[in-house]
Amino acid sequence: MKVQVHPALSDNYMYLIIDEKSGEAAIVDPVTPATVLAAVKEAKVNLTTVLTTHHHWDHAGGNEALVAQADCKLRVYGGDDRIGALTDKVQHGDTITIGNLTINCIATPCHTTGHICYYVTSSEPSDTHRPAVFTGDTLFLGGCGKFFEGTPEQMHTALITRLGALPDDTDVYCGHEYSLNNLQFGLHVDPDNEACKEKYEAMVKRREDSKPSVPSTIGEEKQYNPFMRVEVVELQKKRGTSEGVDTMRSLRQEKDGWKPPA
Questions:
Q1: 59 is annotated as an active-site residue
Q2: What percent of the chain has pLDDT over 70?
Q3: Which of 6, 115, 156, 176 is catalytic?
Q4: CATH for 2-257, options being 3.40.190.10, 3.40.50.300, 3.60.15.10, 3.40.50.620
Q5: pLDDT higher than 80, residue 98
Q6: Is 58 an annotated catalytic residue?
Q7: Which residue among 6, 55, 56, 156 is the active-site one?
Q8: Which of 6, 55, 59, 115 is catalytic?
Q9: DSSP string spanning the chain?
Q10: Active-site hit among 6, 54, 55, 156
Q11: Residue 262 pLDDT > 90, yes or no?
Q12: Is residue 115 annotated as a catalytic residue, yes or no?
């Protein structure tokens, strides 16, 4: 398995997932189709699949154009009828196969009601790439998406019960480049978190070098992402809460109005 990171718009990421043995490929949230088609041509792969995390225009807005411009028929997967060019609606627990790759659909409603994350593993013994999860606007490096259509209870299930149960070495590919803002907020609410300090310093350097911050890993997120740490007693004490859902609610409410220091 190979994952290509393709920036789009002002701060979005699209991902080309390639099964190197079969040459079959999938694209995640292809909001700029021209970039996708150029990448497919350069990689000399067979694009068969579109994986859409949610219906917002900056993720699904390129679906129709990509389908129209592609050389072959594409299957467009997603968990919401509002997704453009949708051919296959999926739900939690569904699986998709791309060559030797298995894609497990993880429902994470909250940012939108139909949000799906895609967990990808390879059955090819020689494939040394770690498992990967494509999290759209549910889990960001150091943060999480706004609760536009859901509740703290839903985001707690998404982050702690579902994504948090994935292997710690799973690479996390999120939908936006929000790393510095998120890590600054992490240090604001948890200033003694050494993992967050180290990650922030590393990401400042990567962004200065015009490199994407992705991927992180599930294990890393559990160390410095406050939204993945809502069950940690020390963080609950700092928030004046006593359980995870209330901590999730408190963090998101503050983050929604928070601005980093100038």
A1: yes
A2: 100
A3: 176
A4: 3.60.15.10
A5: yes
A6: yes
A7: 56
A8: 59
A9: -EEEEEEETTTEEEEEEE-TTT-EEEEES-SSHHHHHHHHHHHT-EEEEEE----SHHHHTTHHHHHHHSSS--EEEES-TTSTT--EE--TT-EEEETTEEEEEEE--SSSTT-EEEEEEE--TT--PPPEEEEETTEETTEE---SSS-HHHHHIIIIIIGGGS-TT-EEEESB--HHHHHHHHHHH-TT-HHHHHHHHHHHHHHHTT-----EEHHHHHHH-GGG-TT-HHHHHHHT-SSHHHHHHHHHHHHHH-----
A10: 54
A11: no
A12: no
Task: Give me the catalytic one of 111, 115, 171, 190.
Answer: 111
Give the pLDDT score at 196. 98
Active site residue 92: no
Band (255; pLDDT cuts 50, 70, 90) = very high
**Per-residue pLDDT, 115:** 99
What average pLDDT is seen over the chain?
97
